[in-house]
Write a structure and sequence with these properties.
The protein is an all-alpha fold. It has helices spanning 2-5, 10-22, 26-52, 56-76, 80-97, 100-110, 114-125, 128-143, 145-167, 192-215, 220-226, 231-239, 241-255, 261-281, 286-315, 320-349, 351-376. The longest helix is centred in the last third of the chain and has 30 residues, at 286-315.
Length: 382
């Protein structure tokens, strides 16, 4: 919650003060997320090999320290250069503390229950915007956004880093030699050709789905306002994203063990195009707009679990972080474009083209996810 709440979710609520005090455009503010994703994409494969080599504890502690340093840099920034530097540091810290290493740590700690553990991790992460949007607004109004950043830096150092250091400490000598049960012994390793096919399909489906989930939520409030809804309603409806994500992730944790992760991915991918088209069908309907936010949140929430668990299920625990790192390369390149593309389309063409763009991407993601599930439903081990 601290990691995502102080990084990805920050520009959406702080765009006004950042534009005012740093003299930068709204595209530049949201472009910070693009920088984060590009840097993470470049660093992901190398960090993945380090993590798979047994460096999870060091990686996560270093990641928390890097994110703390980024918050300090942001608090001291006076313009675009300082703002960019802060997001470069966030980009370095993200795979170390928030994505690859975090999921690999769950796989290491939970063993055969890794899918449920990753689901719980994503479940708690769904509260990030719900907690940190009002917290950031309060700290900014009370102390100013620069002090707010220093408070967030302290959270990374005082809360996150010690948790990683303590919980990921080396196990007792007898524990590593204890054989760990395979996630599903009946599933043989994929051949090189099938691994390549699985990688391409996952990269395509996850990238397109992520294009929506990294770009659309930052514009939800503006979309609802553009359709004539009040600011109060737009903020209230937007706040429903967090609980919707939590509900879908909770459902995956509770019921997912009886359903293949790729099947969950297909169901999740079906919900997204239905959700994003609802405001177009009834732009003035509060009910449809509320259903749009809830449906989007549920699809996006469950898909984060699918993106984390599917590589583990198909490629195995031994190379999980490495393969996740390689998957993050195309994904992050697409994700990086999302905030800027969505801001541009929304600013120049309005809410309906923005949602139609989301609908098209969601349909292609759905088709690719169906192909992945049909080809590899019997090869998953989680």
């Amino acid at each position: 919650m601290i990691g995502w709440g102080t990084t990805f979710w920050l520009p959406a609520v702080m765009v006004g003060p950042l534009i005012r005090d740093l003299a930068i455009s709204s595209e530049a503010v949201f472009g910070g997320i693009t920088i984060m994703l590009l840097v993470s994409a470049a660093a992901g494969p190398r960090f993945g090999r380090i993590i798979d080599g047994g460096g999870i504890r060091r990686a996560m502690v270093a990641g928390s320290a890097c994110l703390a340093l980024a918050m300090v840099a942001l608090s001291l920034s006076q313009g675009l250069a300082g703002y960019v530097l802060a997001w470069v540091l966030i980009g370095i810290g993200t795979p170390l503390a928030l994505t690859q290493a975090a999921a690999a740590a769950m796989a290491q700690l939970a063993g055969p229950k890794a899918r449920q553990a990753i689901g719980v991790l994503m479940l708690l992460g769904g509260f990030a915007s719900t907690v940190f949007w009002p917290l950031a607004a309060f700290l900014d109004a009370t102390y100013g956004w620069r002090t707010m950043c220093l408070v967030f830096a302290a959270m990374h150092l005082v809360v996150c880093a010690p948790i990683h250091f303590i919980l990921l400490a080396p196990r007792p000598a007898e524990e590593p030699v204890r054989p760990q049960p395979a996630l599903r012994p009946a599933a043989p390793p994929l051949t090189a050709e099938r691994r390549r096919s699985a990688f391409i399909l996952m990269a395509t489906a996850f990238s397109l789905q992520g294009f929506i989930t990294w770009g659309l939520p930052l514009q939800v409030i503006e979309i609802l306002k553009a359709y004539g809804h009040s600011v109060a309603f737009a903020i209230f409806a937007g706040s429903l994203m967090g609980p919707a994500q939590v509900i879908s992730r909770l459902a995956e944790v509770v019921f997912g063990r009886t359903t293949g992760i790729l099947t969950v991915g297909v169901v999740t991918a079906v919900v997204m195009p239905v959700a994003v088209v609802l405001p177009i069908l009834g732009p003035e309907s509060a009910l449809l707009c509320g259903a749009f936010v809830i449906g989007y949140g549920m699809s996006a929430g469950a898909m984060t679990v699918v993106r984390s668990v599917a590589p583990l299920a198909l490629f195995g625990r031994e190379t999980y972080a490495t393969m996740s790192g390689w998957l993050s390369l195309p994904q992050n390149l697409v994700f990086a474009s999302a905030p800027i593309v969505y801001a541009f389309v929304m600013r120049h063409w309005g809410p309906t083209p923005t949602l139609l763009m989301s609908f098209g991407a969601a349909l292609v993601a759905l088709g690719t996810m169906v192909m992945l599930e049909r080809r590899f439903r019997n090869d998953t081990s989680a």
